[in-house]
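Protocol step 4 of 6: structure prediction from sequence.
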Amino acid sequence: MPLTLSQTAPTLLIRKSAFERVGLTRQQFDEALALTADDFRVEGGLIAIGPLVGEDTLTDLIAQLEELGLAYYDDFFELSGNWPDWLKLFVMDAGA
């Protein structure tokens, strides 16, 4: 089932296989970002984290993921959340 993305702030999309490969856990993200249940969603092979608020939140998170060996674009990707409210976007793992 596709996940709805927010148009108000960025969402980080991570391949579930990459997330697990480097030993990440939801608890790490909850503690670092104070996420709600709706801010961390898993569907098929895709994890959506966000909307992410705060000026440096996204850039810091990308840097941390890259330090763990994840590759931007191949393992994770961000969508800006910068589109009009009349447009609704949904995402899902292409392999699903």
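Step 5 (inspection) to follow. The helical segments are 16-21, 26-33, 57-67.
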